[in-house]
Predict the 3D structure of the following.
Amino acid sequence: MSRLREEYSDDKKLYEIAGKRSCTGCGACASVCPVGCIQMVENKEGFFYPVIDHTRCIGCKKCYKVCPNEPEDDEDVVAVLAGYSHNRDIRLTSSSGGVFTHLAEEILKRNGVVFGVEMQGSQAVVCAVESMEEIQKLRGSKYVQCQVRNAYRQAEKYLKEGRWVLFSGTPCQIAGLYRVLKKEYVRLITLDFVCHGISSPRVLQKYLKEQGNGKRTSEIVFRDKTEGWNKFSIKVKWEDDTVSRASLEKDPYLQSFLKNLNLRSSCFSCKFRKIHRKSDITLGDLWGADEVIDGWTEDLGYSLILIQSKKGKELLESIKEKIVAVPVELSQVMLYNASLTTSPWDEYSRDVFFKNLAKHDLQHCISKAEKNGIKKKAGRKIWKICKREM
């Protein structure tokens, strides 16, 4: 692994299986390699890309065939709902309305396994949990690219044993899972979410270094609701038990994320941002909740729920006593939740941000990207006007 990291630190062959702007880093290619010659390696921006060790490669091309670069046709959405948990504590410690926790609990009651992302220090990793006590570490958004490792094969193992599996992840990871499995499993339920985009682990590391002055982290909460759901904060607990918290308006990491500056290249042309998806259930924040449903004004968080299959519908039905779930019009929801179908477009500002990352602090990188991005956009507009008048 260290040899590969050193050999490809200049990004020369990181984009062999799929181009930089197409590869999502789902890790499906590494999972299917029969000789284990593919490693997920960070590029200069800190994102994971597959690297083939050609000294061991047998040329089977399974890595190319499994790549979910072209999404398959998906079925129509079964239902569009707005919801939230009756349990106030679960709702407060969840990113949105707390629905995921109850879905996960139901699978565990069936002696199943739940896959999701946990923070291990400053790294996000896909892991499997089999107890109610462990569910809390999967709860909440993780605004950084996670390492899938062997999660797809783990899920396959449990499914072959006849166990229920709830696999939660980004839309591209769910697509990767299905391509690895190659077949439908009755006891597999997949859950994706309305994805804003994937953040760079290197940006997170830089942020923690700037904020912690050399201290290690013991906990990161990317969506702390101390000040409410609409004005969430990032909270970091350090090894010396001190805690820092910064609101989304002031925190450089959240700002770089929300302004689309620290996102992966593929997020700017994402093929998985659509209504109809491969997953059984899609969850997200129900932004504009008070406009969609009269009286929904609590600042605790509300969930958008898209039921994509019969299996998803049956699972949601099994937790109906624990949640509030109200049908809503998709067209109305779309007015406040553009990330469901729309990719960010200003990749130029994003490139300026990463170009300055090694030399300057995050706040300076943001300012530089915004300043240069505005100049570029203004220049393009002037050029178009002049061209029309010529």
